[in-house]
Each structure stands twice: as structure tokens, then as C-alpha cells.
Amino acid sequence: MSTPFDDRPAPPSAPLDRWRASWAALPSNVRGSLWVALAVFLFTLMMTGIKLAGERLPVVQILFFRQLVMLVVIAPGLRRDFPAALRTERMGLHGCRVAAALVAMLAGFEALVHLPLATATAISFAKALFVTVLATLLLGELVGLRRWAATAVGFVGVLVVVQPSPAGVDGYALLALLSAVAVAFVQIALRVLTRTERSVTILAYQAIPVALLLAPATAWWWVTPTPLEWLLLVGVGVFATLGQWCNVAGFRAGEAAAVAPMDYTRLLFATTIGVVVFQEIPGVATFAGAGLIIAATLYTLRRNADPPAGARDAD
User: Fold this and answer.
1) Is the pLDDT of residue 308 over 60?
2) Hey, where are the domains in the chain?
């Protein structure tokens, strides 16, 4: 039985041959964009479930069940290839990624519960700006003056969304920013890990340690969920797992610069759900700041897609 995170091709299935042929006939960037758009929608549903469940349940409990569901999904692949699926020579990097992922999820979930959905989404876009900074510091990537200027414009957009004042900054907005930094570190780690590690190995070294680390806190702050909250907890885990699989499929199918901008449809989904489900009307600052962040990120993606010639390095 194949699983979404099994890298090996599934056996042919006659009823699906026609659909597969039509799908394969699409340009690779179109297929990749559709996968990422579906991933974005699933992640938005996950965020909605977190926000609803977080009205009464502790964030650590929501996160624990998210990881538990992910572990159940990848368990068949782990069992079939055990212990090979856990074999790695990058244990230290896996550990750093787990720590960053834990910070990202705890801070991000807590911010999501208390901030408007569109605001939390807009701030999360800053992760791409932090990737530029961390790639320079940790990977030694060259970033020229123009891309640094674009990154600065993006951070101005962050300030517009966060709206700092003499009285201070919303603590939950700061948590959302901390989450964006941690997510950026996770993405940098993935750049390195995906060169040698299988998808099931990467996911296993996140799902298992994070679940184990969260188990004591979940037991300590345990709140017995209602039937609806149980449904939300399972839904959060399912949407998160399927969303990750669709995201991986999208970036495998298409070029990163072509498919990555689809992530910004998340603001449209988040705004719609925020208005319909939570009666949240985003302010002008949210859209203005998000526009600056998105514009800066799209410019950076375009520059990254150019061939690595000297002219690009001077950009």
C-alpha cells in the first residue's frame, strides 16, 4: 500500500489511466501551481480549525494531535521500510529543524488563535524575507543590493501590518513574526536535507520528536475535547498532512519561481473565511502591508530564477 509520502511510484491502475494522461499533458508549471493552490487551501482550512479549536483547547494540545495524525498517515511507509526510513547522516540538522519547527508551530498557533485570520496570514508571508537573510548568513548565498532593497521594502510591509506604536507592539503579532523566522530556518534546513533525505524520513524526524516533546505538556494542560473539538483536532492533522504532501508535489512538478507565488492566494482564502466564519473585517493596513511583502517576495523570486551570472550577483 502506497502512502502520500512514499517516493516510490504507485502501481498502475486502469481506471485512472485516462485521468493521469490528461494530467501529465499539462505543462509542468501548471501542474505545480495547481498542487500548490490546493495545498494553500488545505493549509487555510487547517488554520481555521486551529482558530476554532483554540477558543477553548490549549495550543500544545492542538499541535500534539496535529503531529499525531501526521504520524498515523506516514506510519505505513515507516513500517514497510523500517529501519531504512529512519536512516540518516544528518541527525544534527534534523534536530535543529525539529527545534525550529516546534517554535514555529507553538508561536504561530498561539498568534493565530488571537489575531484576525487575514492579519496572521499577512505576517506569515514575511518568512520569505527571512529566508533571504538566513540564506546569506547560513548558506553563504550572494544577495546583491537590489534584492536587499526588496527585502527592506518587504519588512516595511511587515511594520505596516504590525503597526507598532509608542505604546508597544501587539505581543501576538510578535509571536507571528517569531514563527515566520522559525519557518524560514526550517525552509533553509529543508534545502539541505532534501538533497539526500527521502520525504518519509524528513517527515518522520519531525512528526515523532515533536509529538514526544509535546506529550508531557499536553497531559499537564489536558482539556477534554467536545465531539466537535475532536473533529476539529482530527481535521487539523489531516489538512496539515495533505497540505504538506500537495506542497511537496507542487514544487517537484514545477519550477519554484513559477509555483511559489500561488502561496499568496492564502490571503484571499483567509480573508474570505475570516469574514464568513469569524466576522473579521481586515483593515486597510493589512492589505497594504501584505501588498508590500508580496511585491518584495515576487521580485526576489524573479531574481532567484535568473541564471547565476555575474550580473545577477550584482543585483
Assistant:
1) no
2) 29-313
